[in-house]
Amino acid sequence: MGEVSLKLPKAKITGSVGMRFAPKYPAFLVDASIELPTGIPLGFVSITGFRGLLGFRYVATKKAAGLKVEDSWYEYYKHPKAGINIRKFSGPPDSLQYDSPFSIGAGATFETTGGSILTLRAMLLLSLPTLFYIEAGLSVLGDRLGPIEKDQSTPPFLPWLPLEMIRWNWPQEQIFKCQQLVEKSSSYMLY
Q1: What is the rounded distance in angstroms from the CA atom of residue 15 to the CA atom of residue 50?
Q2: Domain ranges (residues) in the chain
Q3: Are 49 and 38 in contact (CB under 8 A)?
Q4: Greater model confidence, 121 or 191
Q5: Which of 94, 30, 82 is nearest to 56 (CA)?
Q6: Residue 72, pLDDT score
Q7: Arithmetic mean of pLDDT, 157-163
Q8: Average pLDDT, whole number, for the chain?
Q9: Could you point out which of 8, 45, 47, 49 has its C-alpha 20 to 30 Å from the C-alpha of 138?
Q10: What is the pLDDT of residue 29?
Q11: CA–CA dist 136, 39 (Å, integer)
Q12: Which band of pLDDT confidence, cut at 50, 70 and 90, is reported for residue 145?
């Protein structure tokens, strides 16, 4: 596991990259972010930061965050530090119990162009087969929200939705029957 941070003081740009790599399996997890001093304008909104996460054979698990299976996903979010980071992902050999595990995530910070009337910090994570996660923190007439790794403040509005994936173990013939039924019903809709 390795992490690197970069800060350009004169340009006021900060960035970071974290990576976990297991060449034996093969498996990897990369989490990169950048924060800009001035937003990139998109109409009345400006993007002030980006974040991307990509992993193969690494999945978000409560165990990796030091929690029990019975603990809530909110506890996962808050423990030991708020947010999603590479320390909260299980890799090989723990992740080998899943079929083709992977993770992909994207995040951004936004503010209204010309000032901080509204600032928004959003993150979307799909970590199959364990978790689908959406977070969006909104601040009105407050300080600019930075990336969760650096800005641990809880915004006044923090809607988030963690959906734990359920693994269906249907027999192959049942799946085939469902597929035939869908194909038959869709062919009726065409006429």
Answers
A1: 9
A2: 2-189
A3: no
A4: 121
A5: 30
A6: 87
A7: 81
A8: 81
A9: 8
A10: 96
A11: 18
A12: confident
